[in-house]
Every structure is written in C-alpha cells, then in structure tokens.
Amino acid sequence: MTRYRLLYVAICILTALLSLSSLEAAQVEDRIVAVVNSDLIMLSEMRRELAPERERIKKQHHGEELARRLKIAESMALTTMIERRIQLQEAKARGIEVSDQEVKQTIQQMKQQGEKIDETDAWSLKNVRDQLTLLRLVDREVRSGVMVVDADMRRYYQEHRDRFALPEEYTLSQILLESRASDGTAAVKARAREILALLKQGETFEDLALRYSEGPNASRGGDLGLVRQGELLPAIERAIANLEAGGISDSIDTPEGIHIVRVEEKKPKQFRPYEAVKMEIQGLVFQQKSEDVFQAWLANLKNKAYIEVKFERAASGQPTGGLSPPPSPMKKE
Which of 53, 95, 275, 279 is the most buried (most CB within 10 A)? Predict the structure, then answer.
C-alpha cells in the first residue's frame, strides 16, 4: 500500500471517529423523554416548550424553591405535550389537515392583533398548524355533539344568580374633613365628633356640609349623587353597608381624610331577568358542557394510547431525582 493510500485510510478512520464522537455527544445532549404510541418526544422539544415559563420562574424564585417550581413546570409541560401529541395522532387518523394557505391567513390575523411571529421559523409555523388542527379536531369530535337545552340554562341561572345581579345603588351625601399636617389628626377627629354631635341635636346634614365640608361637593350640601356598589372606597362601603335610607355613618378614616356619610336613598341588589340573560347563559353552559365532554374524550384517548415517560433529569440540565409521571394510564420507565 502506497504512502498516499495509507494517508487516505488514516484520514477516513479519523473522520469516522470524529463523526462517532459528535453523534455520541448529540445523543447525550438530546434524548427521548416520552413515547406516545409510535411517536417520540425529545428532550430538546420539551426544553423549547418550557423555555418561556422557565425564564419567568427563574426571575421570581431561587434556590430550592426554584428547583421545585422548575420540576412542577417540567411535569406540566410534558403532560401538555403528550396530550397534544395524542390529539394530533387522532386528527391524522381522521384525515384532518390544515393547508399552507390557512396557516398563512392565521399568521396574518395574529400579526394584526399585535402578536409577534417569525414566518421563517419552522417551529412557529408548526405550532400554528398544530393549533389549527386541534381546533378543527375538537370542533368535529367534541363541540359538534354538545347540546344546550332550556332546562340546562334555567338550572344554571338558579345556581349562579349572583352572577346576573345588578349592584346596589346609593344616593349619598358626605361631609369631608381633609387631614392636614398643620391641623393634626387628633384635631380633625375632634371636629368630626363635633359635627356628629350637631347632627344628633337636629341640625341638617346639608347645612353642616355647607359650613364644614372641604370636599368638592360641599357647595351642593355634600351631595354625591348616585353611586353604585364597588365605586366607593372600601372603608366607606363597609360603613354604609347596613345603613337604611336616612342613616348617617360614624366618622370614616380614608386616605382622603375623614368622612361622615348620609344615605339618602338605597336601591337593593336586583337580578336581571332570565330572558334578558338567556343568550349569555347559553354561551356559558355550552362552554362548561364542552369542557366536560372534552375532558372525557381526552381521557378515553389516553386510556387507549401507549404512553411511556422516559427521562430522569430536569430540563434545566441539573439532576432532580426524576419527573413525576403524568396521570394514569401513563407509564414510567
């Protein structure tokens, strides 16, 4: 064998060894984390799925709590990926496909809504296609079979009446004494006690508001007009909650100062009639029933699938003692 031939063989052997070394390094870096029927989920996929949540967690937590939160996030991410893979397999089995044109149209709509998406990134395009596929699958297999009847809606209305309540309404007047550093809190509270004493002696609220109130509505006798529950400062709402029309509160401390409030009128909480909220209830009941049917449908797909979780380290690359398996019937190596 000539010297050149020996040199050629040596170069080939060295190249093969380097290639083998690179392959082994890649296998160490990336590996199978789950088997879903005939599909594999790789660690690199899970890391990419987890990346945004991982960064958020790292900004908020440190030490043992960081490791604990990352482990929980890994488990949730892998479970989500497994469930998505099962659904995509079902979509393929049922011949559900999404065209390139539909993907492009969706991306344009996302951009118009202010979302940033890189059309040259294959991963982003795949995510859009997968989401469209899953929506089509769930529409066909789940939502198309959900029926909402009047009895369902009336039952929901009775069980969730507070959801359709109108807030209480008050017509109020107030005397506001603003706290000033020069006066001191004690002096302001003393003035409030004097005003309350005058009210008990029979002086009118309007006259006292004109004389003492430092609020912007003082010239109107302290009239605040119509106010709805939820629009008042919490301390004032608590103070007037049990007052009837004509009732006057004790002095109320808030950051604005000290208030004395009179309830002129009080309109109790009312409920919107069923017919007025019927369409709203229909959407709520449909959403609730769709979710229940979806969970049962997904559980059935998982029961029929072969799922094996196969990884032992956290996506952070640090040993964590393993990942808790997703819910039954998933298996763990």
Answer: 53
Range of the domain at 110: 31-144+290-332
pLDDT digits (tens, 9 = 90+) for 173-193: 999 998 765 566 788 889 999
What CATH number does the domain containing 308 carry? 1.10.4030.10
Q: What is the pLDDT of residue 182?
A: 56
- For the chain, give the secondary structure using H, E and C: CCHHHHHHHHHHHHHHHHHHHHHHHHHHHCCEEEEECCEEEEHHHHHHHHHHHHHHHHHHCCHHHHHHHHHHHHHHHHHHHHHHHHHHHHHHHCCCCCCHHHHHHHHHHHHHCCCCCCCCCHHHHHHHHHHHHHHHHHHHHCHHHCCCCHHHHHHHHHHCHHHHEECCEEEEEEEEECCCCCCCHHHHHHHHHHHHHHHHCCCCHHHHHHHHCCCCCHHHCCEEEEEECCCCCHHHHHHHCCCCCCCECCCEEECCEEEEEEEEEEECCEECCHHHHHHHHHHHHHHHHHHHHHHHHHHHHHHHCCEEECCCECCCCCECCCCCCCCCCCEEC
Task: Indicate whether this model's pTM tops 0.85.
Answer: no
C-beta atoms surrounding 102 within 10 Å: 15
Q: What is the end-to-end Cα distance of the chain in Å, rounded?
A: 52
Which CATH number characterizes residue 235's domain?
3.10.50.40
Is there a domain that residue 12 lies in?
no
Q: Enumerate residue ranges in the chain where pLDDT < 50.
A: 1-28, 313-333
Q: CA torsion angle for 19, 23, 25, 31 (degrees, to 10)?
A: 180
Angle, helices 274-304 vs 63-93, to 10°: value is 90
